[in-house]
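Write out this protein's structure.
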Amino acid sequence: MSSRPKAHGIVPRKSLGQHFLTDDAVARRIVAAAEVGKGDLVFEIGPGTGALTVHLTRCAGWVVAVELDQVLIPVLRDALGGAQNITIVHGDALEVDFIHLAREAERTFGRPFEAMRFVANLPYYITSAAIRRILECGLPITTVVLTVQTEVAERVTAQPPDMSLLAVSVQFYGRPELLFTISPGQFHPQPEVESAVLRIRPHNRPPDVDAQTFFRVAKAGFSQPRKQLRNTLAVGLGLNKAQAEAILRQSGIEPSRRAETLSVEEWKRLASLFMSNKESVA
């Protein structure tokens, strides 16, 4: 067990959702799940006191660690023991320009990276926003490994008939898998819930449907839980019920079905037909 937070007199900030990983064996297991190589660039969001960072710098070509809490940066530098292959950025991971940071890291590294990866022990309150930000950042990401609430990991990896808007959103961009769980006792302070390590392998190919239209249709479908799609789409997309039913039937989807029963591929078909119908009327 690492006692680094206590040794440095660090008081975790509840407002930032700070729970520091203290089990070194678990940290090694998380880093191993990211499959980091010596030619890789790794972005770490919320490095904290460096539980993962020390192992990432040993495995990666370069690490860019983005930390919001400036108080932790000296502690992080101390933990790294003089590692030279890292850039520590004081900033908000929901706002930084990952493409710019990748270009800067590549210039310093001196050659193109073989792969780009994300690793993070995410504050639970930014989980959904951070996942979306990572997957939409525009970089050719090979793997994303995140520590999140087990409940969130289960929602992200769900399949029909138990889908959610979060599951659809993540699976639109990549293939998620729940790797293993972490007990609250492996963190300081202990969270009230069990955590899980989630790995996402982005598709890294252009989507076969307009993303903006896809998410507009999916959000409309999930806007009224437990309601039939003929109703939710009519309300959410400004259609009458007959138009909503027609688009659903053209997509091969029974209008009485509910949003949680649709696969990502069915949402794609639905979004494509909605866009086609909209263009034909315009």
